[in-house]
Each structure stands twice: as C-alpha cells, then as structure tokens.
Amino acid sequence: MAAPLILTEEQTLLQGAADGFLNEQAPIAHLRKLRDDREAEGVSRDLWRAFGEMGFAGVLIPEAHGGMGLGAVEAGIIAESLGRTLTPSPFFGTAVLAARTLGAASADQQAAWLPRIAAGQAIVALALDEGAKHRPDRIATTAERSGNGFRLNGAKAMVLDGHVADALIVAARTPEGTTLFLVDPRAAGIAIERTVMVDAHNAARVTLADVQIDADAVIGPVGGGEAILDGVLALGRACAASSLVGAGDQAFRITLDYLRTRQQFGRLIGEFQALQHRAAHLFSEIEIARAATLAALQAVDGERDDAPMAAAIAKAKAGRVAELAVQEGVQMHGGVGMTDEFDIGLFMKRVRVLNETLGDPAFHQEGLARAQRF
To answer: What confidence score (pLDDT) does residue 269 get?
Structure first.
C-alpha cells in the first residue's frame, strides 16, 4: 500500500526547523554577499559546521557514525528549504550524493569520513559527469591496474564543490565495469579548477593525469560502481527535484506578493483576471510537482524497484514546473524582473542550474519513453 503523500508530524517539525534556520542564518542576502565579495571558496565553512550542529549534514548518516539516521524524505525536506533560500551549501553534493555513496564503502572508509561529514567538518564531492550534459553511461575516465593499486586518467566536469573538497569520489572505467574510487584531491596528477556557475553556486573541473591510488581506495567491489550509482542517482534526482520545488514555490510566493502590491492603471495588478488565472494554474502545477517529488522520495526510502523511474518523473516534472514559475514570475514583474535588484532573477538562474544537475527534463523524459517501449 502506497504511503500517503503528506509529511508526518516529525517531518513537519524538521521542515519548520530547516526553514527557520536557513531564513535566519542563510537568507538570499547570504548568497548575494558571497557573490559580491567574490569569496575564494564561494561557500561558508562556518555555515557548513552549523549544518552539522543542527544535524542536517548527517541526515542520511547512521547514528553509529554521528548522523541522524533518517531517510530520503527528510533529506528532501532540507533540500527544498535550500531551494527556497538559494543557499550555496555542500549539502547536496556531500550530505546526499557522497554520504549515500559511502554507504557502500568499507568500514575504514566510513569511519574516516562519515563522522566528519555529519559534523559539517568535511566536504566530499562526487566526480561523475564529464561533459556539458549529464551522461552517467558515458564515462571515459579510466582506471588501469598499476602496482598494488590503480592509475587514473581522465577529466570530470560539474563536480559540485570540487574546489573545496577534502575528498573526491571518482567514477572510472575498469575492465570489470564502472568502479568508484575515494581519492585525495591533493594527490599528484590532480588539477582542480573552480567553476562559478550562473547562479553563483560552485562546481569544478577536475583533471586526472596518471594519478596513482592504492587498491583500498575502491568503494564497493571493482566493477560494482554502476549498481551503487543507480541508488545514489535516484536519491540525488529526487532531492534535486525537492530543491526545484522549493525554488519554484518561493518564486511563486514572491510573484504573489508583487501582484498584491504593484499598481497599474490605478488598480493592483493582482486584480486582473488574466493574471489570476495564470497564478492559479501555476499553484496547481507546483502542488503536482511536490506530490511527485514526495512520492519519489518515499520510493527511495522503501528501496522499491520503481524508485529510479519515480525519481526521473519527479525531476522532469519539478524542472518543468520550476522553469514555468520563474518565467511567469519575471514576466509578471515586467522589465524590472530581470534586474539584480529583484530576487526573482536569482531564482531563474538557480532553476536553470538545478535543471541541468543530474539530468534535465528532456534527459529524463527520453529515459522514461525508452523504458516504456514494448
């Protein structure tokens, strides 16, 4: 029997805590300050440690390693709050993608990294994609056996927070299949270039040239990376959908406030029926996206076979709806909507980047269409 598409009392309390914490500690003004001050790292380590103190950084990490031991729904709640405030944070890359990947790691690897992530003391980045688009099935980076370990060669793009990472999880091809490696970013042969994205969030390009690593750097079995990534990506896409829902919903709220205060021809523009109809349609679409996203998060928590498909549906739907929300918001603001003075333009940029993260709507729609062929 499917779970009801509503939050439990405990999850509602977590939602209130996350919204309250981010609105106080990292509102949109926090993003603007990091951007305008041209901070070298582009993220606040102090804020990340505060995430640890609140338990947010360890939401998916077992209690034995200092985490909260919660699930995908709770991670999605925090991700949605981050979408509302546009906060640059290692949460998605480290607390979601890396933490879930390390769930398949050895006991020593987990003991070395999970407690530090849970405390907000470490940033770990997943280095998966290699081109302008998300294509996890096209990994060109190679790992050749060398001595008692492996030698890595290749290049990675869109490595979230890779420029400040304390460790990298690198996906590479071996004769046995895709394999995941836990790599020190300071190792000889690694070059990292920060990429400031259009939304003022952070990624990096990582180049690996004859990087020598020991055999104990492998996460899970050699050639077992694809199976691990299937679960990681389902979770990541559902959490990215949560951030899209948060960003789209907040853009909608900002637009509603504008409709209620802006006057034209001696009337509040929110009184015009055409704008009311568009707002009502957008509200309905956001609620559908929110339901699809919660369903995907529940499927991930239940380890259901359809979790990857549910996550793809949520990511595609939330991406389309969030894009509609920011486009409608900018248009209803008029020309001023594209000026930096108004926050609505910042949401448009963030939605654009979130849509590209782990596959845009077209990527997931094509995958769903192929899966439905008879």
So the answer is: 67
